[in-house]
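thread from #wetlab-drylab

HS: before we spend reagent money on co-crystallization trials with manganese (II) ion, can we at least see a predicted complex? here's what I'd submit
DV: go for it
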Amino acid sequence: MADVDPQNLGERAERMLLALGAISAEPRRLNRQFLTPEHRRAADLVGTWMKAAGLDVSEDALGTVRGHWASAGLMAGRNTGKRLLIGSHIDTVIDAGLYDGNLGVVAGILAAEHFAKAGRRLPFALDVLAFGDEEGVRFPATLNSSRAVAGVFRPAALELKDANGVTLREAVTRFGKDPADIAGAAFSPEEVAGYIELHIEQGPVLENRNQPLGVVTAIAGQSYLSVELMGEAGHAGTVPMMMRRDALAGAAEIILQAELMARDTSGAVVATVGVVTISAPATNVIAGHVVLIVDIRSGSDPARLDFVERLKLEIRSVADRRHLGLQVTQTRNVATTPCDAAIQDGIAAAIRATGSEPLRLASGAGHDGTAMAQLGPIGMMFVRCRGGVSHNPAEYASPADMGLAVAALIRFIEGFKA
Ligand code: GLV
Ligand code: MN
Ligand code: MN
């Protein structure tokens, strides 16, 4: 790896992340959602970088930017006809950090550039992918971009609406694309040798263990329960406490119950309520109608499914006790995605080659790899982030760690057997 300079790669990664981080819907915080003008600008910047890196650039109907480095010529007899896909996402949560997703895209470009700039063809092609819909902030669904690339996009998703009533179909059209072309975004499983994603850990394990890089063993499965509580709106000053049917008080009890139950699993399951929607909220009105979403995750599918069933019973009992109408809908049920054993070993060897010890750990966060696993074997490399903080503007990974990560990614590509 004599021709790889991790310090320089880390500094370049940081500069690119700062440039991407300036592209936001808001002046004072990072907010870049799927198929928005900000997504357009970020995709354009990524495309410019890919071109400068020597890659062939294209974009699919959901705005995923692709940078292609062709494999060794057929005549050379080394071409496997396969591709190694390297990706992550450029959409963000609201008030996001600079690194989540964006680092993986930047790292993919820098790694591919290493080969392209040297004119170094590999026995397989490289495709760097910048997805735009990992966070699921705009529409009530996630991973539509990677699902399209994996050939498992659900056309029914086109009817999903954002908070302004704009459907995904309309958003695609406004982005200048044709929804009819989404099917054309798919790679075929026969041509894909694997998918690798580099991502900040978004948790504290690597930092606690003093290691810059880790190998992901699996991406946790997820369930979402959408809980609708129907009480009775009323006057906050006149309705006696014992006569209320307060949907928000019921929601509060359910939120605490979910937290308590998750704590009782000793780390096997995590449960979060990050969205509570009160219909017609006002300080002087007893909430008559509330919808909350419980996000439940675990590396163990049986533990997650058992938790969902037990939580549903608790929710029912809170609603009954409070005389609230109840509708519970499971809006997501995604199994745990294992990372491929050979890719894990390849990542571990690459990390060792950069001089650090590869720690194996599971990902509690969701990633595009979950969709890409429908296409072929996947793997992920984690990069230490300060305090384990993510989905927060304080998110930080050092240039030194990012440089090592890109160097390890280059090493992984060199050792990859398609
Ligand atoms: C995405 O960041 C998720 O894990 O929900
Ligand atoms: Mn991410
Ligand atoms: Mn995220």
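DV: Residues 93, 100, 135, 391 surround manganese (II) ion (ligand 3) (CB under 6 Å).
HS: ok that's useful, forwarding to the group
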